[in-house]
Amino acid sequence: MKSLRTLLLVLLFSLFLTACSADGLYSLTLITEGQHELTQNIQGDLFILGGEVIVTEDASVNGNVHLLLGALTVNGEINGDVSFMNGGLSLGDSAILRGDLNLGGGSFHRSPDSVIEGSVNAGTGVSLPSVPERESRIDWSFWFRTILNGLLSGLIASALVRYFPSGIGRINEAIIRHSLASGAMGILAGIVGISLLVTMAYTILLIPVSILMLFLLGAGVFLGWVGLGSELGRFIVRMGKRPIKPSKAAFIGMFVFMPAFQLLTSIPLLGGALGIALGSVGLGAVSLTRFGLRRFIPATDEDLPDRPGWDLSA
Predict the structure, then answer these.
(1) Measured on CA atoms in the order 192, 210, 157, 287, is the torsion positive or negative?
(2) Are 105 and 131 in contact (CB under 8 A)?
(3) What are the pLDDT digits (tens) for 284-306?
(4) Which of 172, 92, 86 is nearest to 125 (CA)?
(5) What is the distance between the alpha carbons of residues 210 and 203, in angstroms, rounded to a whole number?
(6) Can you say how many angstroms the Cα of residue 134 is from the centroid of all Cα atoms in its chain?
(7) Do 35 and 52 contact (CB within 8 A), yes or no?
(8) How far apart are CA 76 and CA 96, in angstroms?
(9) With a threshold of 0.70, does the pTM exceed it?
(10) HEC states along the chain?
(11) pLDDT at 118 (0 to 100)
(12) Which of 227, 198, 226, 230 shows the shortest CA–CA distance to 214?
């Protein structure tokens, strides 16, 4: 109970930090969904992860704009660079862009009367997954890195399943039994974690805390991948009908999962959404089980018996 109160106090303190102003350091506006009309001056960078945003003629953004998903219509002034990754970008008649325009993908429309004082970079400003063309040469370095990544990830997953079987079993159980709750929790943890990291990274006293949070967030994402990969290995073993040790099954599943995940996320438009969905389910399962330290039991499932087969120590 004492540790729970401490965790709640830390989270409450973090929420207070997000509400504090960062004058002279850094300011960030994050939009994830809905329709927004910006009618006044916005200080700091603008991140758009979804929804529709309109910058009116009398409004301005005093920072860089990063459009990852969603739609952005600019009729006002942007005193920075615009990095356009996906979605829809439209520059109206009265739009003024003081910096560079970095085009990645999606639909782009520009009025002839709009002004871009910087340079227009097509395909170089934003890093996008590369999809091999049919007649292009085989990128052996890409396949070498993919296979090496699968091998290293498989070895780590095998070690985790061998020495931490109950924790991985709890994560797997949350992924399979409570995938919707895990996905929702993963999205929430990702959005809140990234916003806190960006806020604290520009506060000198909280830089060590932001580094620790970055490590925990990365560890949570990878541990979620281990849960997905080990469950895929269990499925492969069941299909092959040849009993092998759980650690070996986890290695096989992770070796298959990591290259498949990398290729899946390289699919235009659809791949990004699928990658976010899988990553959110894994991260959410890790969060709900507190990195596999306890079993996640919703209020409606308190009387459910333990399902046999989740203990990977056998």
Answers:
(1) negative
(2) no
(3) 899 889 888 888 887 655 445 55
(4) 86
(5) 9
(6) 30
(7) yes
(8) 6
(9) no
(10) CHHHHHHHHHHHHHHHHHHCCCCCCCCEEEECCCEEEECCEEECEEEECCCEEEECCCCEEECCEEECCCEEEECCEECCCEEECCCEEEECCCCEECCCEEECCCEEEECCCCEECCCEEECCCCCCCCCCCCCCCCCHHHHHHHHHHHHHHHHHHHHHHHHCHHHHHHHHHHHHHCHHHHHHHHHHHHHHHHHHHHHHHCCHHHHHHHHHHHHHHHHHHHHHHHHHHHHHHHHHHHHHCCCCCHHHHHHHHHHHHHHHHHHHHCCCCHHHHHHHHHHHHHHHHHHHCCCCCCCCCCHHHCCCCCCCCCCCCC
(11) 86
(12) 198
Confidence of residue 278 (pLDDT cuts 50, 70, 90): confident
Q: Which residue in this structure is represented by tokens 């604290």?
A: 200
Q: Per residue in 144-177, pLDDT tens?
A: 887 888 888 889 888 888 898 888 889 988 888 8
Beta bridge partners of 151: none
CB contact at 8 A, 37 and 56? yes
pLDDT tier, 3 (very low <50, low <70, confident <90, very high otherwise): very low
Q: How far apart are CA 289 and CA 291, in angstroms?
A: 6
Torsion of CA 175, 161, 286, 204, to 10 degrees: -150
Tokens for 193? 């974690």
CB atoms within 10 A of CB 48: 24
191-242, pLDDT tens digit by residue? 877 777 766 665 666 677 777 877 888 888 888 888 888 888 888 888 877 7
